[in-house]
Every structure is written in structure tokens, then in C-alpha cells.
Amino acid sequence: MATPYNMAFACLTCCKSFKREFDLAEECPMTLKCPECGGSAYNFGRHFKPPKKSNKKQWDKIRFLFEHGFRFQKIRVGSGHHDTVPYPETLEEAKEFVVTYKDYAIHSG
Ligand SMILES: [Zn+2]
User: Fold this and answer.
1) What's the order of all strands across the beta sheet hosting 16-23?
2) What is the Å distance from ligand 1's center to 34 Cα?
């Protein structure tokens, strides 16, 4: 039996996150339809902690990171290291972060 797991999806238009359950045999889509606006809700992985809907600054940061290819994937630096790089707390930090870790960005499409 495959164990189901939850993936977090977020709509950057609604500033809303929701979870969907998948089992391991199932391929997880990168986007789902947002239940609020019918637009795209993006896969932010298993460890995404969404800010409050009202926290516009945090959503701005998430949108910025996303546009630069960072979807809260784990970033490990160096070889043989198990330390992951923490994601930035603020939009200002995010601006440096996307430059420093540009080699780790996801390029889609
Ligand atoms: Zn939406």
C-alpha cells in the first residue's frame, strides 16, 4: 500500500494555500485549479507554511521567490552536506537570496 501524502498548493492571486492528498504512485501536478478564482494554484511542496492571507508582505516575498524559480524546494549547498539553506524572511532578503542561489532555481516551461 502506498502511503498518501499532502502537497501544499498556493494561489498567488488569492493569497491562499490549500492541501491535496496524493499517494506515492500518483504523479503530483505542478499546478492545480484554484478553488477560489479558478486560476492557477502552484505546487509548493510538502513543507510550505503559508502566511496569513492578510500578510501581503509575505505573499509579495513568496510571489517574488516563485517568479525567480524558488518554490520552497530544499536547497543543499556543497557536497556531502545535509544542511539546507533557510528561505529568506523578508522581501529584501529574498532579493539577495535569488541572486546567491540562482543556480538552484527551477526553470519551467
Ligand atoms: Zn485563486
Assistant:
1) 16-23, 4-11, 40-43, 31-33
2) 5
Total domains in the fold of the chain: 1
The tens digit of pLDDT for each residue in 13-52 reads 999 999 999 887 878 899 999 999 999 999 998 889 899 9
Domain housing 90: 4-104
Asked if residue 100 is part of any domain, the answer here is yes
In a domain, 99, yes or no: yes
10 Cα: distance to centroid of ligand 1 (angstroms):
8
Q: Is there a domain that residue 9 lies in?
A: yes
- H/E stretch holding 57 reads helix 56-67
What residues flank ion ligand 1 with Cβ within 5 A? 11, 13-14, 34, 36-37, 39
Grid coordinates representing 4? 498518501
Read off the pLDDT of residues 43-95 as tens digits, 9 standing for 90 and up: 998 889 899 999 999 999 999 999 999 999 889 887 766 778 999 999 999 99
What is the whole-number distance in angstroms between the Cα of residue 15 and the centre of ligand 1? 7
